[in-house]
Task: structure prediction
Amino acid sequence: MPPVLEARQVAKLFAKDNHRIVALESCDLVVKEGTFVALLGRSGCGKSTLLNLFAGLSRPSSGQILLRGAALSGPCPGVGYLTQSDTLMPWRKLHRNIELPLELRGVERAERKRRSDQLIEMVGLKGHEGHYPRELSGGMRRRASLARMLISDPGLLLLDEPFGALDAQLRAEMQAELLRLWQGSGRSVVFVTHDIEEALVLGDRVVVLGERGQVRLDVAVPLERPRDLDDIRVDPDFVNMHRQLNRALKGGRDDVIPAT
Ligand SMILES: Nc1ncnc2c1ncn2[C@@H]1O[C@H](COP(=O)(O)OP(=O)(O)OP(=O)(O)O)[C@@H](O)[C@H]1O
Ligand SMILES: [Mg+2]
Result:
């Protein structure tokens, strides 16, 4: 499979009060078309910075970001990005937030409503169409943002901790919906999470980023799909990988394993 996304020796620096913050340094990551990559890493290691670069919302300070082999110069229509923080428009009701990308493209009202109704159902927000974001819970807003991202039918999905605010049952339901959307669709997914179990349930591959976005561990997940968390928790492969990922997250130097 050809790469859909490539970070090649990427550095990203920020300037703050005469200090330089190195968010990413020599970051190398290749995501192959059609695959589901889960990204793990401690807080502040540069996951969101990397996703912003992949989404074309910011430029690397040095190195290259390639989308399907071409240098990325800005946001692309086929790339959906669910950012870590909420970007719903407070003055728009739920359904109008979700329909916004189609409205901007001039899609007619009936078609917009048909698509948003489908997605509202899928993310479990039926009955809340007329609510403003402030009238929704954090988890509901997150699901609304997901629906807004999906309405454009992107081929590449960048998701920054999409299900962190959800209760366990809802999280499992949303994971299943996401997998249903992804499997056999040819879509590619980069999914940031803090949760090792979530990474193992979802990913074809799990990548652990260390400080400044350096790949510390990059492993294929050999578990068969569908993966039911209750079943795979006792699978020896799962137990081993969980341990390995946990060690890599804690970050002893001995745990550094080169990317495959
Ligand atoms: N706009 C910015 N200006 C200054 N520093 C920034 C900016 N964005 C990120 N940083 C810094 O870059 C580093 C990486 O931040 P980033 O948000 O990518 O981390 P993260 O891995 O997503 O963390 P978390 O898991 O907490 O979301 C941090 O030290 C952060 O303070
Ligand atoms: Mg982040």
User: Anything to note?
Assistant: The longest strand covers residues 3-16. Residues 80-153 form one domain. Residues 47-48, 84, 160 surround magnesium ion (ligand 2) (CB under 6 Å). The chain is about 35% helix and 25% strand.
